């Protein structure tokens, strides 16, 4: 199984705003990373910006090419499309729930 560590993680193409983007399956480490941030933010007051920050992180980790986008660039996309995309990233990672919703 160790030989699989160097193998590229699987990707899947999904629809986004009338085009296609590639989603890469998140590693356990990446899932734990954003879950830790979610837990930290839960201790604070409910804030729409914290939900957006988590959503941006999920998209940057899971969408090929999204890590290069600034917050402002990501915020220029429609919120419902970003929420759907974050949900798909989480589903591909095997995570269920509302972690990606702002």
What is the compact description of this entry?
This protein is mainly alpha-helical.
**Arithmetic mean of pLDDT:** 84
Instruction: Give me the strand/helix succession.
Output: EEHHHH
**Total DSSP helices:** 4
Largest sheet: 2 strands, antiparallel
Question: Shape from CA axes?
Answer: globular
Topology summary:
Layout: E1 11-16, E2 19-24, H1 28-42, H2 48-62, H3 71-75, H4 79-93
Antiparallel strand pairs: 1-2
Keywords:
102 residues, globular, disordered C terminus, two-stranded antiparallel ribbon, mainly alpha, single chain
What can you tell me about this protein's structure?
With 102 residues, this protein is mainly alpha-helical. Helix content is 49%, strand content 12%. It has four helices and two strands. It has helices at 28-42, 48-62, 71-75, 79-93, and strands at residues 11-16, 19-24. It has a two-stranded antiparallel ribbon. Helix 1 packs antiparallel against helix 2 and helix 2 packs across helix 4. The longest helix is centred in the middle third of the chain and has 15 residues, at 28-42. Residues 98-102 have low confidence and may be disordered.
